[in-house]
Write a sequence for this structure.
């Protein structure tokens, strides 16, 4: 089911925890869904969605069972990555501008002079 895969993807994105915790919770959820589908093979995605609820609410419920320190750590890491993703291109652009300026100045410092040498043979 594509809709179920989208549900899991949304669920994974809304969870702020370690990869191991996400994997563990998604396996539990998948096992729950499989058990439900074994009992009711004619169930639709709407039935599953009504059973599981909103992905954000389900992830919030799971995250309440986690250690708050783990959640804080991953929030901090997300913020650090966001800052790096913004800062790194800026640093690269600044360094490229400095390089281009330096190359331009190096060409301006060259002074060409023409000299003519005349040899006189006796």
């Amino acid at each position: 089911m594509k809709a179920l895969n989208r549900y899991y993807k949304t669920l994974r994105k809304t969870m702020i925890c370690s990869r191991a915790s996400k994997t563990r919770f998604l396996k539990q959820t998948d096992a729950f869904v499989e058990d439900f589908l074994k009992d009711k093979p004619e169930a639709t995605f709407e039935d599953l969605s009504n059973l599981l609820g909103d992905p954000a609410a389900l992830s919030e419920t799971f995250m309440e069972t986690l250690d708050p320190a783990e959640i804080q750590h991953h929030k901090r890491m997300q913020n650090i990555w966001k800052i790096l993703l913004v800062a790194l291109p800026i640093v690269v652009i600044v360094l490229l501008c400095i390089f281009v300026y330096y190359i331009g100045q190096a060409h301006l410092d060259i002074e060409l002079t023409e000299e003519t040498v005349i040899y006189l043979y006796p």
Notes: Residues 68-108 form the longest helix (41 residues).
